[in-house]
Description:
Elements: E1 2-4, E2 10-12, H1 21-30, H2 36-57, H3 66-82
Antiparallel strand pairs: 1-2
Helix pairs in contact: 1-2, 2-3
Amino acid sequence: MKGKTSTGFKFDVDETILDDIEFLEKIADAFNDGFTMFRVIEDLLGKDGKKRLYDHVRNDKGKATLSAVSNELGEIFDALSKEPSTKN
């Protein structure tokens, strides 16, 4: 699935990842161990996509903030949840 967030970040995600039990376990683990979220982002977007995301949200001090990344991820997951092929 290709899409674009409201801030202009273009993403390309294989929507079948939402049916990958190991990916879903990582999401669940992220609630207990925030460091797992880094692996979730990379699994979702790939290494290049993760770097592009971080570069996209960098502020004027050169920092990719947690809140900015979280907002983008929220929009990406929202778009994936609305994609007809991801619904059971």
